[in-house]
Amino acid sequence: MSHIVTIATEVRDETAVHAACRRLSLEPPVRGSHKLFRSKASGLAVRLPGWQFPAVFDTGVGRVQFDNFNGNWGDPLQLDRFLQAYAVEKATLEARRKGHAVSERALADGSIRLTVLVGGAV
Protein backbone atom coordinates (compact mmCIF):
# COMPACT_ATOMS: atom_id res chain seq x y z
CA MET A 1 0.00 0.00 0.00
CA SER A 2 1.33 3.43 -0.96
CA HIS A 3 1.10 6.54 1.21
CA ILE A 4 1.82 10.13 0.17
CA VAL A 5 3.31 12.22 2.97
CA THR A 6 3.84 15.98 3.07
CA ILE A 7 6.39 17.18 5.61
CA ALA A 8 6.69 20.62 7.22
CA THR A 9 10.40 20.64 7.96
CA GLU A 10 11.79 21.65 11.34
CA VAL A 11 15.57 21.39 11.38
CA ARG A 12 16.49 19.66 14.66
CA ASP A 13 19.04 16.96 13.78
CA GLU A 14 22.66 18.08 13.45
CA THR A 15 23.69 14.80 11.81
CA ALA A 16 21.08 15.28 9.08
CA VAL A 17 22.24 18.90 8.56
CA HIS A 18 25.78 17.64 7.97
CA ALA A 19 24.47 14.94 5.62
CA ALA A 20 22.39 17.49 3.67
CA CYS A 21 25.49 19.68 3.26
CA ARG A 22 27.47 16.71 1.94
CA ARG A 23 24.61 15.77 -0.41
CA LEU A 24 24.59 19.29 -1.88
CA SER A 25 28.42 19.66 -1.87
CA LEU A 26 28.23 22.58 0.57
CA GLU A 27 30.83 23.53 3.15
CA PRO A 28 30.29 21.74 6.47
CA PRO A 29 27.98 23.66 8.82
CA VAL A 30 29.58 25.67 11.63
CA ARG A 31 28.13 25.93 15.15
CA GLY A 32 28.38 29.33 16.88
CA SER A 33 27.21 32.92 16.72
CA HIS A 34 26.95 34.21 13.16
CA LYS A 35 26.52 37.67 11.68
CA LEU A 36 23.48 38.38 9.58
CA PHE A 37 23.04 41.87 8.09
CA ARG A 38 22.23 43.87 11.23
CA SER A 39 21.93 41.11 13.77
CA LYS A 40 23.46 37.88 14.96
CA ALA A 41 22.00 34.40 15.14
CA SER A 42 23.25 31.44 17.15
CA GLY A 43 23.16 27.90 15.92
CA LEU A 44 24.40 25.82 13.04
CA ALA A 45 25.33 28.03 10.05
CA VAL A 46 25.00 26.75 6.50
CA ARG A 47 26.49 28.71 3.61
CA LEU A 48 24.08 28.43 0.70
CA PRO A 49 25.25 29.06 -2.89
CA GLY A 50 25.05 32.74 -3.81
CA TRP A 51 23.91 33.86 -0.35
CA GLN A 52 25.64 36.84 1.24
CA PHE A 53 24.87 35.64 4.79
CA PRO A 54 24.43 32.10 6.14
CA ALA A 55 21.18 30.41 7.07
CA VAL A 56 21.47 29.69 10.80
CA PHE A 57 19.57 26.73 12.23
CA ASP A 58 18.66 26.63 15.92
CA THR A 59 18.32 22.86 16.23
CA GLY A 60 17.00 23.20 19.79
CA VAL A 61 13.74 24.73 18.55
CA GLY A 62 13.85 23.72 14.88
CA ARG A 63 13.85 27.22 13.38
CA VAL A 64 16.03 28.93 10.81
CA GLN A 65 17.15 32.56 10.81
CA PHE A 66 18.51 34.27 7.71
CA ASP A 67 18.65 37.60 5.93
CA ASN A 68 18.51 37.33 2.18
CA PHE A 69 16.91 40.79 1.71
CA ASN A 70 13.82 39.35 0.03
CA GLY A 71 15.92 37.38 -2.42
CA ASN A 72 18.39 40.16 -3.24
CA TRP A 73 21.16 38.60 -1.13
CA GLY A 74 20.34 34.98 -1.88
CA ASP A 75 17.88 32.96 -3.92
CA PRO A 76 15.18 31.44 -1.66
CA LEU A 77 15.21 28.34 -3.87
CA GLN A 78 18.62 27.50 -2.41
CA LEU A 79 17.07 27.34 1.07
CA ASP A 80 14.22 25.22 -0.28
CA ARG A 81 16.77 22.90 -1.90
CA PHE A 82 18.63 22.57 1.41
CA LEU A 83 15.41 21.87 3.35
CA GLN A 84 14.47 19.17 0.85
CA ALA A 85 17.91 17.55 1.23
CA TYR A 86 17.64 17.77 5.02
CA ALA A 87 14.18 16.14 4.99
CA VAL A 88 15.43 13.28 2.79
CA GLU A 89 18.49 12.73 4.98
CA LYS A 90 16.48 12.87 8.22
CA ALA A 91 13.81 10.47 6.95
CA THR A 92 16.51 8.09 5.69
CA LEU A 93 18.40 8.20 9.00
CA GLU A 94 15.26 7.46 11.00
CA ALA A 95 14.10 4.64 8.72
CA ARG A 96 17.52 2.97 8.78
CA ARG A 97 17.77 3.44 12.54
CA LYS A 98 14.61 1.31 12.80
CA GLY A 99 16.06 -1.37 10.52
CA HIS A 100 14.17 -0.42 7.36
CA ALA A 101 15.60 -0.25 3.86
CA VAL A 102 15.35 3.03 1.95
CA SER A 103 15.64 3.85 -1.72
CA GLU A 104 15.16 7.20 -3.41
CA ARG A 105 14.36 8.43 -6.86
CA ALA A 106 14.57 11.98 -8.20
CA LEU A 107 11.40 12.92 -10.07
CA ALA A 108 11.12 15.18 -13.13
CA ASP A 109 9.42 17.96 -11.11
CA GLY A 110 12.41 18.21 -8.74
CA SER A 111 10.80 16.28 -5.91
CA ILE A 112 12.34 13.16 -4.44
CA ARG A 113 10.44 9.93 -3.86
CA LEU A 114 11.64 7.90 -0.88
CA THR A 115 10.54 4.31 -0.61
CA VAL A 116 10.82 2.73 2.82
CA LEU A 117 10.48 -1.03 3.03
CA VAL A 118 9.56 -1.91 6.57
CA GLY A 119 11.75 -4.69 7.91
CA GLY A 120 13.57 -5.58 4.72
CA ALA A 121 15.66 -4.71 1.71
CA VAL A 122 14.40 -2.62 -1.19
- Helix content percent band: 25-40%
Gross morphology: globular
Mean of all residue-level pLDDT scores: 92
Rg, Cα atoms, Å: 16 Å
What's the story with the biggest beta sheet? 4 strands, antiparallel
What report would you give on this structure?
By secondary structure, the chain is α+β, with helices and mostly antiparallel strands. It has one domain. Helix content is 26%, strand content 26%. It is built from two helices and six strands; from the N terminus they run αββββαββ. Strands 1-2-3-4 form a four-stranded antiparallel β-sheet, with no helix packed on it. Helix 1 crosses helix 2. It starts with 13 loop residues before the first helix and ends in a 5-residue tail after the last strand.
Which properties best describe this structure?
single chain; 122 residues; alpha+beta; four-stranded antiparallel sheet; globular
Write the layout of secondary structure elements.
Elements (H helix, E strand, L loop, with lengths): L13 H10 L6 E6 L4 E7 L8 E4 L4 E3 L10 H22 L3 E6 L5 E6 L5
Antiparallel strand pairs: 1-2, 2-3, 3-4, 5-6
Helix pairs in contact: 1-2
